[in-house]
Design goal:
The complex is a heterodimer of chains A (311) and B (529). With 311 residues, chain A is mostly helical. Chain A has helices spanning 2-29, 34-38, 48-58, 64-76, 90-125, 130-144, 147-161, 175-205, 208-215, 220-257, 263-272, 276-304. Helix content of chain A is 77%, strand content 0%. In chain B, strands 11, 12, 13, 14, 15, 16 and 17 form a seven-stranded mixed beta sheet that branches. In chain B, strands 1-10-9-8 form a four-stranded mixed beta sheet, with helices on one face. In chain B, strands 4-5-7-6 form a four-stranded antiparallel beta sheet, covered by helices on one side. The chains are: A mainly alpha (311), B alpha+beta (529).
């Protein structure tokens, strides 16, 4: 098990290096800079002398290889650089935003798992029934709905019409403020999990070992809980693992809509204002998070199905 | 006076403000404002950021030597009680307030102002306020590293400061924004200042949740007696207009900036119509033309473009009336605005004639660089294209991000561009952008060169008579209109929705969201008592 874990961790290193290079190259060729963004709200002309000094101070005119060398050297020591905008260390900025994002992602996925998996199970156990039809219509709708629009609908209903929940903001970080953004973010993974679970369960229900279990006189409840659920779990777990990355990406829209102080909204503003160290740091953290979750999922496979460790 | 009249014409807001003034301000409560220009504040070090978004919180936390007075329509003394001008208009001696205390309890002295201005001129950093402080003699030397302190700033005593300028200008226009805020000399440079900034403003820092909100509490030792009225201010970051709309209707926020679509919706809603406050801001939207592109080097072609586009139609139908038609460069709220001036009428026949006279009877094609901005970007360009086509001018659209557009403009890398530019509050500074000595990278984006114009602007800068200066600036403005280096599109109409319980809103023509928060108060109908 340990060698399997080490192998999986080592496999992520080339991915991280490729991502670091890709982010750097992309934001080196993208037009515009923090200096040009300073005057983009048209409040007044940007002083040419300040522009020149800023370029020098931030090393914007240095050759790409010099900038890359300095970036990598800092990165090796865990230093993501200093934000062009806030003049704060990027690690400190990300640290402040990470917890709200994690809260949002885990709440969204908890909602997705809590609703999507049972929905998929029920639909699969009664294929063609009204329950199956309704749950799959819900699932397709959840997948198709734009986050922004769905979020606004929830705001309208639960904040404006019913007055149950606040429409925006982080508040004190409690559940009340978390519910609407989490449901908005969780609706498409919920839909996907429902469909994945349904498909997985339907397939397993017709497998030989399930038929054998039934022929041996095992009760339907036991067949489902002992054989079907356990075998479907590997597929569901894979889907959940992949959804972590998707949800993190979609959090950008949801955080902005609900004024949620996570790394998604940090990323948007950093990109718009060309705060390259903050963009690089944020994307890298997102990628590392995605890789970590997927590595953990891979390790969990080994626990659920020991055959995977030796594959 | 003129400003007042224009402001009255500008909207319903003044009535709201007047009603508020007639009531007795209530002490206590929480004001819940919004920062609508993105999902974060740039920095807690206000010296480093020129963005409108950041000045919203800075108005509560910090103070500068001058402050914008919306009623007067000009900057007035804030941290000084009086100023004496001598030395041929170059030396300004300020009698500073002796009752201004920083949020750490220390009294402000002349040393703090000198320290703050020296900091802004630090040549190893890039503080955007340097463009203002550079007007003080010796500031440029500090910037270049040739001197350690600005020679033109002299402390006479703790509460008397002498400032010697390099040009005969009104320093009020240079030292009223938050970019030149006064920091406490002993605290401003410390590491922890960014985490807990200290200022002279009516509210002191409590917390900043990056990407969500900033919270400030009443500063009891603020120097204006009885102010601020409210106990607390919460400024929520809300970049999404639709989310702001729901929050405003749900009474979770007290102010919300409105875009064109919401402006129409709020006007049509009897419950919301009364919440609208509007003002003509000092921003002019225009299409700049590069004279290096041959057709645009001919004045007749530039005028033809002004005749060919039906700006009124675009303003009414597309911008939903959320703008005022531009009649020249200086906006409605400028002290040098000439109300006798009329805009270029929509006259395609005249445009065709001018093009033929200039040697383009069949028109020509040009590339128009634009951002996606809904009020002065792609939608406007798309509306103008068929109008220009009608007179034979073809347009090739080049779309870029707003941040990129600013760079393109500064470098002169365009044939034409559409932009929104601050054209006030100082009319002289706004017009000086077209002076031939102003570099393109500064603000002479259309590389305008005209000796007659230069002469008038120079004369305006030299005169001591205010009335004569206004007259000369109006003359320069008219000359610019005739030369038409740009297509004069519109002046921004800033629109904000304000809850009925929030009183004291000021019609700030420099930026409506920049409220002097000590004058705001909430009555007892506010849900955030």
């Amino acid at each position: 098990m340990l060698s399997f874990a080490i192998r999986r961790v080592l496999q992520t290193i080339p991915t991280v290096l490729a991502v670091v290079l890709l982010i750097f190259v992309l934001f080196s060729v993208v037009p515009g800079s923090i200096v040009s963004s300073m005057g983009d709200d048209g409040r007044g002309p940007t002083d040419p002398q300040v522009v020149e000094r800023m370029k020098k101070q931030l090393g914007l005119d240095d050759p790409v290889y010099v900038r890359f060398g300095s970036y990598i050297a800092k990165l090796m020591t865990g230093d993501f650089g200093t934000s062009f905008r806030t003049r704060e260390p990027v690690t400190a900025m990300i640290a402040k935003r990470m917890w709200p994002t994690l809260q949002l992602i885990f709440a969204a996925l908890a909602f997705a798992v809590a609703v999507g998996v049972p929905l998929g199970f029920i639909a699969a156990l009664r294929p063609g029934s009204i329950v199956d039809t309704v749950s799959m219509v819900l699932a397709v709708s959840g997948l198709s709905m734009a986050k922004f629009w769905f979020g606004l609908l929830l705001m309208y209903l639960f904040a404006l019409k019913l007055g149950w929940l606040p429409s925006f903001g982080y508040g004190d970080g409690g559940l009340k403020n978390l519910i609407l953004p989490a449901v908005t973010l969780g609706v498409s993974p919920m839909a996907l999990l429902a469909r994945t679970t349904r498909a997985a369960v339907l397939e397993i229900m017709t497998a030989d070992f399930v038929r054998t279990a039934r022929s041996k006189g095992m009760s339907e409840t036991r067949v489902v809980t002992w054989h079907v659920m356990r075998n479907a779990l590997v597929i569901i777990l894979t889907a959940i693992g992949l959804q972590f990355g998707v949800v993190m990406g979609q959090a950008v829209v949801v955080e902005k809509l609900f004024s949620w102080p996570g790394i998604g909204s940090l990323l948007v503003d950093s990109v718009l204002q060309r705060d390259i160290p903050a963009v690089q740091g944020t994307i890298l953290v997102v990628v590392l998070f995605f890789l970590t979750v997927n590595t953990l999922v891979d390790l969990l496979y080994g626990v659920i199905d020991p055959r995977i460790r030796y594959a | 006076m003129k400003f007042k009249m224009i402001a009255i014409a500008a909207g319903l807001g003044l009535a709201l403000a007047a009603t508020a003034a007639a009531q007795t301000p209530r002490k206590g409560g929480t004001i819940r404002m919004t920062a609508p220009y993105g999902s974060s504040f740039t920095s807690m070090d206000i010296h480093t950021t020129p963005r409108a978004q950041d000045e919203i919180y800075a108005k509560a936390l910090h103070r500068s030597l001058y402050i914008w007075d919306s009623t007067e329509g000009k900057p007035v003394l804030e941290l000084a009680k009086e100023v004496v001008v001598s030395g041929g208009g170059l030396v300004h001696t300020f009698k500073l307030r002796d009752d201004a205390y920083f949020h750490n309890g220390r009294r402000m002295t002349a040393d703090d102002i000198i320290w703050s201005y020296n900091r802004i001129m630090d040549g190893t950093k890039a503080y955007p306020g340097a463009r203002f402080v550079r007007i003080i003699e010796g500031a440029a030397e500090v910037e270049k590293g040739q001197a350690k302190e600005i020679s033109g700033l002299k402390k006479i005593d703790d509460f008397t400061l002498e400032m010697k300028l390099t040009e005969k200008v009104d320093p009020a226009f240079y030292f009223f924004t938050a970019l030149t805020s006064i920091y406490p000399a002993d605290e401003g440079g410390k590491e922890g200042f960014l985490q807990k900034p200290i200022g002279l403003g009516p509210f002191k820092f409590v917390e900043h949740v990056p990407g969500s909100r900033i919270v400030l509490d009443r500063w009891d030792r603020f120097y204006k007696p009885g102010k601020p009225y409210a106990d607390k201010i919460v400024i929520s970051l809300m970049g999404e207009a639709a989310a702001r709309d729901v929050a405003f209707r749900n009474k979770e926020i007290d102010t919300s900036v409105l875009g064109p679509a919401q402006y129409v919706a709020y006007q049509a809603d009897p419950n919301l119509k009364g919440t609208i406050v509007e003002v003509a801001e000092v921003f002019t939207r225009y299409m700049g033309m590069n004279p290096a592109f041959k057709p645009f080097s001919d004045k007749r072609v530039r005028q033809a473009i002004n005749y060919a586009i039906d700006a009124d139609l675009i303003i009414n139908k597309l911008v939903k009336g959320k703008a005022y038609r531009a009649t020249s460069w200086l906006p409605l709220t400028s002290p040098a605005y000439d109300k006798a001036m009329k805009p270029y009428p929509y006259d395609p026949a005249k445009a065709k004639q001018l093009l033929a006279d200039a040697g383009y009877p069949n028109g020509f094609e040009f590339e128009w660089t634009t951002s996606q901005n809904e009020s002065w970007g792609l939608p406007i360009v798309e509306a103008a294209i068929p109008m220009l086509d009608k007179v034979g001018i073809k347009v090739k659209v080049k779309q870029v991000e707003t941040a990129v557009l600013a760079e393109v403009i500064r470098k002169g890398d365009f044939q034409a561009f559409i932009y929104s530019q601050a054209t006030g509050p100082d009319p002289q500074a706004a017009l000086k952008c077209f002076h031939s000595t102003t570099p393109q990278s500064a603000c002479n984006y259309t590389n305008f060169k005209n000796t007659d114009f230069d002469k008038v602007i120079d004369e305006a800068g030299q005169t001591d008579e205010a009335a004569k200066r206004v007259q000369l600036l109006q003359k320069a403005n008219a000359l610019l209109f005739e030369e038409a280096p740009i297509w004069f599109f519109n002046y921004n109409k800033a629109v904000m929705a304000v809850q009925p319980w929030l009183k004291g809103i000021q019609l700030d023509a420099t930026e409506l969201t920049h409220q002097n928060v000590e004058d705001l108060w909430v009555d007892d109908t506010s849900p955030a008592k």
